[in-house]
Structures are given as C-alpha cells and as structure tokens.
Amino acid sequence: MSTEADLRDGDGTTDAPAPWWVTAGVAVAVAAGVAARFVPRGALWLDEALSANIAELGPSGAADALRRDGHPPLYYWILDVWSSVVGDSPWALRSLSGLFGVATLPLIWLAGRRMVLRQDPTATLRARRTATAALVVAALLPFAVRYSSETRMYALVMLLVVVGYLLVDAQLRRPRWWTVVGIAVTGSALLWSHYWSMWLLGAVGIGALALAWSAHRSGDHTRRNGALGVAGALVLAGVSFLPWLPTLLFQGANTGTPWGDPVRPATFAVLGLIYLAGGAVAEPQLVAYLFAGLLVLGVVGTTNAAGRVELGLRVRPNAQPESLVVVLTMALAWLAAFASRSAFAARYLAVLVPLVVLVAALGLTAIRDDRWRRLVAVVLLAGFAVGIVAEVDRGRTQAADIADAVVAAAAGAPEPPLLVVCPDQNGPSIERALRARGATAAVEIVTYPALGDPRFVDWVDYADRNAAADPVAIAGRALELAGGRTVLYAYTGNYRTLEGQCEAVLQALATVRGAPSVLVPPSERNEDEPAIELLRFEPR
To answer: Checking DSSP bridges between strand 418-422 and strand 444-447, what pairing results, if any?
Structure first.
C-alpha cells in the first residue's frame, strides 16, 4: 500500500494513486504498441530487401557490398545471424527490429524515472508519472512502431541510445570503470550501426566537456570525473571505428544520397516532428503540434499551485540537457549535410527519438491537474493510434503484385520469360518477392542500366553512370538476351537521376515487339517506393 511519503511530489503536494482505469489504459496502450510492431506488412521494399540481401552475404561479403551502398555493417551482421536461426521470410526478418523495439520500452521507462530523480530525489510521484508517460509514448509513437517493423537498423539505434543514456546517467551519478566501458561499447555499436550516431556522440562529448569544466570550477570533483569519464569513453568508441573509416571516406566521396537534395535547418525540425507523429496523415499531423507543445513544457514549463502553466529557464525538473543534445546533434548533422550536399531522411532521426520521447514525457507530467493531463494524453495517443493504423495499412511496395503477375505469366510461357526491371532500384524488392514464391528459377531477371544482378544497387557514382546510359542501346541488349522469349517489363517513370530513361526503354521495346499488354497497373498507395507498372511484350 502506498504511503503519503510515496505519493508526495518534490513541492510537498500529495496525490492519490491513479484510478484502475488509467492503469488498465496504460497496459492496453503498451500491449497495442507491442502487437503493432509484429503485424505483417507484406513484401519487403527496396531498403529492406537490400538489407536482407546484403546480410546474407556473410560478414566479409556484407562489408564489401556496403562499400557500394552507404552504411556501416553491424546491423547486417546481426541480421545474418538472426535469419540463419528464424528464416528469411519478411515477417521473420522484421521481427528482429520488433524485438529491439520491445526491448527499448522498459529501458525508456527507467530513463524517464531517472531523468526526474537525478534533479530532485524527492519527486517520486513525478518520476513515476514521467516514466509511465515515456513508456506509453514510446510504445505508440508511430515513428517507433514503423521502424520496429522494418528490416533496417533504426530500431537497434533507438535501443542503443536508451542504453547509452542510462549508462551516461549512471556515470555522472557515480563514476565507475565499468560504466565507462559500457559507454564506450554502446557508443562503438552506435557508430557501427548508423552514421548519424557521429553527430549524437559529438554532441554528448561536447556536453560532457562543458560539464567537466563547470564542475571543476565549482569544485564538484565527482561530477567532473564522471563527465571526463564520459568524454574518454566516447574517444574510445571513436577509436574502435577507425578500421571502418576508409570505407566511410570512400562512401562519402562516391555514393552520397543521389535520391534527394539538401534541406534547410527548419526542414529538419518540421519534417522530423511530422514523421515522428505519423507522417502524411491528417490526424497525426494535428497532434504533432500538441506534441511540440509538450516538448516546450518539458524544457521550460511547469504548473503552479493555482493550476496555471508557467515558463522559465529555472524550472525543475526539466529536460534541458536532453534538449540541448538534440539541438546540437541536429546542428552538427545539418552542417555536415550542407558541406557534403547530402539529403535528409526523417528516419535518420532515430538517434534522437528516445531523447525527444523523454522531453515530451516530462512535458506531459508538467500538467499537474489530473483531468487536463489525462485529456492531453488521450488526444495525443488517439492521434498516434490513427498514425499506426495508417502505417499498418500503408502500401510499401508493389513487389508482391508484380511477383504474382510474373509467376502467372511464367506458368503459361514455353520458356522462362525475361523480366527487365527499370530502374535497378525496383529490382531488390521484386526479386525478394519472387524468391518468397519460389519462382526465381521460372524467370530471368535483369535490371536497368547494367542488366545485372537484381539483388543489389551499386550506388557508386550513381547519378553519373545513369546520365551516361543509352536507353535505346540497353533495350537492344535486353532483346538480344531475350531472343524469342516473352519480355516482361517492370518500370517506374521519371525516377530521380533517370528522368525519361525508363520511358525511352519502353518505347524502344515497343518499336521492336509492338504494343504491350498491361499485367499490373501502377498503384497510387505506395509511399516507400514509387508506383511500378508491369507490361508484357510478346515475341515476334
């Protein structure tokens, strides 16, 4: 049974335990978030298919393939081991990220609790509320649900960030050698998982040095030693990454992000906030503004005894250290993107999502009136729920439809037809969908412009190679390869760096083979991959 001391917040006020229906609602929300991470999503889209294809090459093969792709290898090595145990179906591959996402939830609860108690050890009620809020927001945040159901490294990154947060907190409370080792290992794992981790670790390192200097001036040797331990651990993490540095430099000089343009700093924040809440869906976009308000409250907000919201830099507890790390990380990332002319994708924000969740959770508990706090939470989570439903129902790729039509066409052909995929970015998802149907032997697959292996995309000098391609000549080579067989053409028009080329291939094929029949029309539901159309050219 709770005592009055257990229910007393840092300002001396008391409160009753949460009603049973609130506790039940929290349990249902968390259970729904966990279940949503494992709902089947259909065929793998481009990025997922590339992850699976690269992982199955084994450690050395994956490292070599990633030189032409653009990521560090840790996630791919883990995925290789995972798929060898559970299989390589889309659900099995995605379940690894689901487990990472579920493992993050109890840790984010603990992080929310520690964030409050670090500043006010007497604020036990506020700490429990913040921990619970962080748990529920992390469970239902559409961004977290999406990337906990995708065969990519972002759920792993979020898990590692929470682990690192807890280790840094422990080191600053009581410096120990084992927390330094833990921070170094976690920081190294982050660097070997995603490159945006460099900006996060850089921001944390700057903050640790600033804290060490401040603690030294104030004579707080324990805090100074703890902060220096954090900085030293991050240096060790950076040293561990040096063997991969030549590959990183090669990728930076030769692969880049040919699929997009650099963006302004405000775009980082606005697009990031929208995609955290659920992306291009009206209801989540509306609650994104409410979410932004909670972030402000988490940094500078509180509610006084009269129930009025007050803002101020000296509000305690606050999430100012976490917010400063977020802002500094984004500043470093934008400067690097601007200097290298790199594009931005909202999924890169995975390195910051746990910190953002903690800030929002503290902002929610800054509303001390139970009725208003619960109303805000219900509205926020209702918007998130709509975003999750939209995410589950969203079409990621037409690869499954294309594969079904190819299988049907191959069944009625005297010889295995030639499937020409344009551009090569459509190849991995279609090949994986055909493989899932056991049909890769029933059709020969080549991709434009190299007419090569459909499992991979070579991103080295991608835009330059595409600009130099001759679509008419390549279409002629494809027809020579087909001989007297049926040609199936899966294409997407006006792909970036290939504008007009897939259309030119289509025209060249039609000039020789005549007008095609449409097997699969383009879909308007795709969000991750552009629409794909499948055409059939009969032999002449």
So the answer is: parallel
Torsion of CA 85, 87, 92, 93, to 10 degrees: 90
CA dihedral 91, 94, 100, 103 (to 10 degrees): -20
Q: Note the helical H segments in 120-220.
A: 124-140, 142-147, 154-173, 177-191, 197-218
Q: What local confidence, expressed as pLDDT, does residue 7 receive? A: 44
Write a three-state SS string for 326-381: HHHHHHHHHHHHHHHCCCCCHHHHHHCHHHHHHHHHHHHHCCCCHHHHHHHHHHHH
Retrieve residue 492's tokens: 């997407």
Residue 298: domain span: 20-393
With tokens 């393939």, the residue in question is: 65
* Residue in the structure block whose two tokens are 């509320």: 129
pLDDT of residue 405: 96
> ∠300-11-224 over CA atoms, to 5°?
60
- Give how many domains the chain has, as a whole number: 2
Pair (389, 424) in one structural domain: no
Residue 183 to residue 380: CA distance in whole angstroms: 33
pLDDT averaged over 10-residue windows placed end to end, the chain, 540 residues? 44 64 94 96 94 96 93 97 96 98 98 96 93 98 96 98 98 95 98 97 97 93 95 98 95 74 74 83 87 94 74 87 95 85 84 97 93 93 93 88 95 92 95 94 95 94 92 97 96 87 96 96 77 93
368, 393, 418 - which closes a domain? 393
Same domain, 372 and 411: no
Q: What is the pLDDT of residue 345?
A: 81
Q: Are residues 413 and 356 in the same domain?
A: no
Residue 310 is which amino acid? Answer: E
DSSP secondary structure letters along 16-44: PPPPHHHHHHHHHHHHHHHHHTTS---S-
Q: Residue 111 — φ and ψ, nearest 5°?
A: -65, -40
Nearest to 90 by CA among 48, 128, 132: 48
Cα distance between residue 445 and residue 423, in whole Å: 12
**Do 172 and 221 share a domain, yes or no?**
yes
Distance of alpha carbon 295 from the chain centroid:
21
Residue 522 lies in a domain: yes
Query: In this structure, is residue 429 part of a structural domain?
Result: yes
Whole-model pTM: value is: 0.94
Give the CA distances from residue 399 to residues 330, 424, 497, in Å, rounded to whole numbers and listed in that order: 35, 13, 22
Q: Are 521 and 527 in contact (CB under 8 A)?
A: no
Q: Taking the alpha carbons of 333, 336, 341, 342 in that order, is the dihedral positive or negative?
A: negative
Neighbours of 142 (CB within 10 A): 25
